[in-house]
Amino acid sequence: MLAAPPALSRTRIPLALASLGFAVYAIWSVCLHRVYLATGYDLGIFEQAVRSYTHGRWPVADLKGPGFPLLGDHFHPVLLVLAPLYALHPAPETLLIAQAALLALSAVPVTRCALSTLGTKRGTLAGAGYLFSSGLLNAVTFDFHEICFAVPLVAFSAERLLRREWGAAVACAAPLVLVKEDLPLTLAAVGAYVVWQGQRRWGWAVAVAGMATTVVLVVIVLPALNPAGHYAFAGRAAALQPLDGLGMKSATLALLFVPTAFAGLRSPLSILLVPTLAWRFLSSYPNYWGPGYHYNAVLMPIAFLAAVDGLRRASGRIRSLSTAGAALTSLAVIAALLPGPPPAPSERAALQAALARIPDGATVAAGSRLAPHLTRRCRVLFFPEQPDGTTEPDWVITSKPLVGWPSPVPAQQRLLADLVEHGYTPVIDNGTVLLLRRR
Q: Where along the chain do its domains lie?
């Protein structure tokens, strides 16, 4: 059983690390947005949803499709709690700063447990290693996602499991059902851990409730809310690929376990990793297999707390190697995750000038890099999926050169030529940006 941190300094260290993490995360993500390295997929989409909540409406994301009800995509009503903050400051930066705070908060229970088990020096190194781990840094670098709510919930729940405080652990994990439809399976894993520790009746109740919630959400709720009448991501599990992408899957496991010398495998707490790794590795969607994007964020507090639990029985040398490895791996990850160079100042000025030509309240079809700079004041559709003949936005804007996603560059060029021929006038057309206005 883990003891509480014995000294006041061991209470302050987790808070100090969390404060550092918040500052780094917030500055980093806001800067990425300001230099046009954030995207409409997904920062713009989530801002549209939160903006809808702020105005008392059902969450709609026009970037997913005109009038698309976002709760039919993923089940994340937890976004509603951001509405009061967004009302105070209606801008994408509000979402990024809230995400920074939530992710940084998760360092408190992780560092607290590390200090209690490893001592002040090693515990602080472990906390820093967690704070700058690949999963968290990837989440910060790649826009905003609802998963930021799950990370502190999982961290506090896992801490309480290690302290054998079953009721508190379940209470911390229960809100996961409001974050995303797969996360009730992590709640079920919490129940399985409780069963493993001898609390069978209580544990089985939690495990069954978690599994049943995911089934209800995926089979009933999400199809009912989706305009197509089915779960949008069912196709990614239709052809399971357990042996494909072994290199990417190995990289994911390596970033979870190698930094702490596989100490987490000594702990039964690692069972909490199983649901998320299972649906990702069994999916036919390659992006789920690797350590990129935000998919590893919810796994990081489990991996680090399982490692702390595993290190309780390890020798001093292994503890030193593990904590040093966590810190060194974080430094390597920081270097690897640095994004490409931002547009030159002259290009950013050109983009800003083009955006300023679009009046508030207009309907705009915007490329991904420009969309989150418009969502707070315009109705924004996603170019090149729009216009598609069913919509006639007032403006079309995209950065140049064109990017071959989600459709090839030649197809986008044909679409733009067709728009100019049938109703749109070029307002700005240079090597940086193209702005069209409907005649």
A: 9-337, 345-438
